[in-house]
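[#protein-structures] MJ: dropping Sugar phosphate isomerase/epimerase here for a structure pass
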Amino acid sequence: MKTRRQFIQQSSAFSVGALLLPNLGFTAAKKQKFGVQLYSFRDAMAEDALGTLKKIADIGIVEIESARSTKGLYYGLSPEDMKSACEDLGMKLTSGHVALDDNFQDTMEQAAASGQEYVICSSMPSDGQTLDNYKKVADQFNTAGEDCKKLGLKFGYHNHEYEFESVNGTVLYDVLLDNTDENLVHMEMDLGWVVVAGKDPLAYFAKYPERFPLWHLKDMNMEEKESTEFGKGGLDIANLIAHRKDSGVKHIYIEQEEYASTPFESMKENMAFLRKL
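AK: finished. structure tokens for Sugar phosphate isomerase/epimerase:
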């Protein structure tokens, strides 16, 4: 038989635990790191890179993925200045979108100087929606992955919609996955474009587990095929985040290319949506 003292101790422990559970859930939500693809703020970054980075940090973004522009890979800043600017604002430059072209050696060297971990090819380096072309590109990606590894970088690829076209019953994106070395080519899945293409990201997480260390989290207006604020489009964001471990994701970058008002207001709305999850 329990003594009165034991009953009180157990009851107190239960009460404290009940109070802590919501806080633990809130803490876990706060610890989820969300980054942003700077193309979301392309015009503002071109006008005032440092001022825009400050506004992005104020929204609660903690990781940055750069994007090449007419002012270079870092919107007119040097790799070193971009790195220090982010760090001064409590953010970290972890990735960057680049082209796999004749200047790739310089691109890699700048990326290494910036301290970023990933170098992501943002579009197909050659034309041709054929199986042979995608196999050729896969070989190019493996080589680029080897070159990046020598400089302490990780190479990857960011999809759009067109990679999910089929040729003779074979999805072209699958050709890239099947013919690239997972230790050399790290896929950045743009979830919005996958859904627009009529494919299921969760099916890819199951078929190619832990092949997607980077995400572009982008809700999409399915009729217009344009990005929109979270919760207004066809992406089941809560379900995708619930299965994020299956994908092997390490960095989640929010990207929005079209806006109801301004990119800053849209990003605030997106972050508020994520906090509710």
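MJ: nice. Residues 4-31 form the longest helix (28 residues).
AK: one more thing. Residues 1-30 have pLDDT under 50 and may be disordered.
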